[in-house]
Amino acid sequence: MWQQLLTNGLVSAATYLLLAVGFMLIFWVGKFFHFAHAIVFTAGAYMAFLLTKWLSLPLLISITLAVLFSTVLGCLIEGFVYRPLTRKVASPLVLLLASLGVYIVLQNLISITFGDDTKSIRVGPIVEGLNVFGSKITLIQILIVCVSVISVSAVALLLRKTKIGKAMRATASNPELAKVSGIDTDRIILWSFALGSALAGVAGILMALDVDMIPTMGMNALMMGIVAVLIGGVGSIAGVALGALLLGMAQHLGVLYISSQWQDAIAFVILLAFLLFKPEGFMGKKIRKATA
Amino acid sequence: MDYLLHILILIGIYVILSVSLNLIAGYAGLLSIAHAAFYGVGAYVAALMALNLHSTFLVNIICAVIVSGLLGALVGIPSLRIRDDYFVIATFAFQVITFSILNNWVSFTGGPMGLPGIPQPTIFGLQVSSHLGFLIFIALFCALTLWVTRRIVRSPFGRVLKAIREDEVFAQTAGKNVAAYKIIVFVVGAGMAAVAGVMYAYYISFIDPTSFTVMESIFIISIVIIGGTGSLWGPVAGAVVLVLLPELLRFLGLPSSVAANLRQIIYGGLLVAFMMWRPRGFLGEYAFHRKEARE
Amino acid sequence: MSQALLEANGLFRSFDGVQALSNFSCSLRQNEILGLFGPNGAGKTTLFNVVTGFISPERGRLSLKNSDITGLPSYRLANLGIARTFQDLRLIRQLSVLENVLLSFRNQPGERLGNLFFRSKKSHDHEALNRQTAIELLEDAGIVEKADDRADNLSYGQQKLLSLVCCLASGAQVLLLDEPVAGIAPEMIDKILGIIRNLPSKGKSVILIEHNLDAVMRVCDRVIFMDAGAKVSEGTPEEVRNDPRVIEAYID
User: Fold this and answer.
1) Structure confidence at residue A205 (pLDDT)
2) Contact, B163 vs B176, CB < 8 A?
3) How far is CA C3 from the centre of its chain?
4) Nearest of A244, A249, A254 to residue A281 by alpha carbon
5) Which terminus of chain B has a lower count of CB atoms within 10 Å, N or C?
6) Least CB–CB distance from B155: residue in C79, C93, C110
7) pLDDT by residue (tens digit) across C2-51?
8) Distance between CA C236 and CA C220 in Å, rounded?
9) From CA A147, how far away is CA A160, in angstroms rounded?
10) Could you tell me whether strands B122-123 and C67-68 are parallel, antiparallel, or unpaired per DSSP bridges?
11) How far is Cα A290 from Cα C18, in angstroms, rounded to an integer?
């Protein structure tokens, strides 16, 4: 029994992780609370649906194009909404509210276009899944875990070894200094959006392949991702991975003691606990409120 | 005619909700998306008492205000320690947790099925049953809410709220116990929202958790922001516009599901538009500026 | 038992490894103007932050009229009779000049909701009284014609004057002024220094942080020179100015 819960926890953690890393990149580099990340996630899944079911394109091509679409969508939001606002030195709250507005508009556009019922891009018959260590796991779920681990490792490597990665880290820790050293921070922020949104698109498609899609799937998934980021700490990929793992495990293993309907509430109680007592997470830098 | 009365009643409910949230978010500068939780708790407390204890309207509304006020104090506590954009996330968490409790504690709250059959309220011996009766009732509560709010914001207390909104450090230096003010404003705002919830419960005579979700909270804050933060009549204007708008859509003959989505697109779009061009809203005076940084 | 109004004993405080206050002690006597100067980063503003409760000392004690006030929250200290201005000029810009002054009064019944609704006459009368006092203070300062203007409509010098008026409105006995004349025109400097010089005769005591040495010399009864969180020299303005340690610290 607990092995199954462990496996489920792992799969959940993997999905949260993809979304969390993307969100964290954007928040860390640009300081944007990009709530609309949730709709980039959802849009990726729905674009895949549109391409496979309405245009009858092959699955792999659809997925690639859908990820591309997510990337572009994220960049458009940055360019048309966030950038003009930061030019006006808008406060974090104004950015957050704008982000919320963007999410609402886009989510409802998806609802109008595709309807609120569940849509699927799953292929093949519903199979029981393979038996691994006494628990069942489907191929898609194995794929989710693998893609998640590989992508996140790739991002970590990118941040550590590549020029763009270093520029991102510089912009994240001290934008003024980065600008003075010749880094085009605007372009770097755009890159963080591109990368983060691509990850979100991938996550959305993978989740849809596992459990189908509805227009509101993004908000909840993103909140889980945010909890993971808060647990792990902004600026640390390892931290976020740890956070996602802890969250996935807590939610699923928690079923042993509490009914599964409380999963979301558990995640949010954890969120509150971290916000109140350890807002920098396990590995991040302090963001505690100014008490002057 | 009944339809018109219905719209007016809804406007009345949203006026109370937005004016009370404006006190918290517009005057004290504490942006919160937990307001639907206060609204819902008020509705549920009154409904549960009416259905199970058969207590009078007056007792029910007082209890609803108290319980909601306590929840308000709880939600206000994180604002003492967390920066304002993270605090919004904390309020989001409170909202979802409250919804979760309303939706999942089936034995107590009826879960997703909700609470049907809420009896009509009897006030001063008169049973309120008609639309007109409810409208008069709501109008009275609106007037009361506006009167209380006006009293507060024009007073030294209100002056301190505005000071806290801009610079907590200055307020502290002036001898103001900032923490106490924040908690109090949440308690008052939550209590007022509970009144709206109670009216809603009695009017519709059936409540379920879907009326008190995060999206509802976001709708209420949108009213406050679009109507104008930190002004007395801004939220009223916002409530009128944002409640009427979707009703006008209905006359365009759209299927109701599309109309619902379109309504959200409109206020989501207005939210973005206002943030980009006029963050203080139509009639407002506070645009969520950067708070003063630490010493 | 010391005669001092405000006393700091052995204060220590560090940030990120930098020692901002190092075994710092001083005392402020009744009706005196004490100057505090020293190079940037000497710990002067940190001292103010500790005395006004925004930062707690790692070690050391603070006392006001012989009562221990160490560790009390800032609003409590403000109500016990300590008022301050800020180096980066804090005011509530969205409120009017008059409202800023009104905000600074302590113990206003209208600030409590209970009074507002159940003792409204008392609140109303108190507010009217405060209003009168506020206008008089603004008249004395010469900016009463700006009373209903937004605070950010004032010039920089006028805003500094307003901060001082707010301190006066507070009724506090101890005023901590952080660079009250920095960056303003000479006429305004004279005006503000004139007000400060008269404060002891109104029963107030002042600690003044200033880089403007001339101002310090003109106004202060005693002066402390700080460097790297420690007190280097203390005495009359003349004594300290000629202290070789002070001269050396400035040359460094």
Assistant:
1) 93
2) yes
3) 20
4) A244
5) N
6) C110
7) 568 999 999 999 988 888 999 999 999 999 999 998 888 888 999 999 99
8) 8
9) 20
10) unpaired
11) 19
State how far the alpha carbon of B151 is from the alpha carbons of A177, A284, B138, B145, C118, in Å. Answer: 49, 45, 20, 10, 12
Q: Does B73 touch chain C (CB under 8 A)?
A: no
Model pLDDT, residue A59:
84
Indicate which of B89, B213, B256, B267 best probes the interface with A, i.e. most A CBs within 10 Å of its own CB. B89
Using the predicted structure, report yes or no on whether residue A292 has a pLDDT greater than 70: no
Side-chain half-sphere CA neighbours of A242 within 13 A:
14
Sort strands C222-227 and C230-235 into parallel, antiparallel or unpaired.
antiparallel
Amino acid at A96: L
pLDDT, position A286 = 56
Q: What is the CA radius of gyration of chain C?
A: 19
Nearest residue on chain C to B148, alpha-carbon basis: C117
Sign of CA dihedral B28, B288, A100, A18: negative
Q: Reduce the DSSP state of residue B104 to 3 states and report it.
A: helix
Angle at A131 between CA A127 and CA A136, to 5 degrees: 65
**Mean pLDDT, rounded, of chain B:** 91
Quote the strand ranges of chain A, DSSP E: 130-132, 135-137
Residue from C51, C111, C131 to probe the interface with B (highest B Cβ count within 10 Å):
C111
Which pLDDT band holds residue A290 (cuts at 50, 70, 90)? Answer: very low
Edge to edge, what strands does the sheet with C18-28 contain? Answer: C18-28, C6-15, C59-64, C67-68
- The CA-based dihedral angle spanning residues A23, A27, A33, A39, taken in that order and rounded to the nearest 10 degrees: -30
pLDDT tens figures, C64-88: 998 999 989 999 999 999 999 999 8
Identify which of C90, C104, C110 has the shortest CB distance to residue B167. Answer: C90
What is the per-residue pLDDT across A220-277, written as a single tens digit (0 to 9) for each?
899 899 989 988 888 888 889 999 998 888 888 887 788 878 888 888 998 899 888 8
What's the rounded mean pLDDT across residues A78-92? 89
Residues of C in contact with B171 (CB under 8 A): 75, 103
> How many angstroms separate the CA atoms of B250 and B264, rounded?
14
B282–C contact, CB cutoff 8 A = no
Is pLDDT of B141 > 90?
A: yes
CA dihedral A228, A234, A238, A243 (to 10 degrees): -20
pLDDT of residue B284: 83
Chain B residue with minimum CA distance to C115: B157
Scored b (16 or more CB within 10 A) or e, B210-226 reads ebbbbbbbbbbbbbbbb
In a 13 Å sphere around the CA of A108, the CA atoms on its Cβ side amount to: 19
**DSSP percent split of chain A into helix, strand, coil, nearest 5:** 75, 5, 20
Q: What is the pLDDT along chain C (252 residues), one digit of tens a residue?
A: 456 899 999 999 998 888 899 999 999 999 999 999 888 888 899 999 999 999 999 999 999 998 999 989 999 999 999 999 999 899 999 999 999 999 999 999 999 999 888 988 999 999 999 999 999 999 999 999 999 999 989 999 999 999 999 999 999 999 999 999 988 999 999 999 999 999 999 999 999 998 877 777 889 999 999 988 899 889 888 888 888 888 777 665
CA distance A270 to chain B (A): 9
DSSP state of B26: I
Largest CA distance in chain C: 64
- Min Cα distance B32 → chain C (Å) is 22
Determine contact, residues B162/C65, Cβ cutoff 8 Å: no
Question: How many Cα atoms occupy the beta-carbon half-sphere of A128 within 13 Å?
Answer: 5
Would you call A226 and B89 a contact, using CB atoms and an 8 Å cutoff? yes
C-alpha torsion A284→A285→A288→A292, nearest 10? 180
pTM of the predicted protein model? 0.91
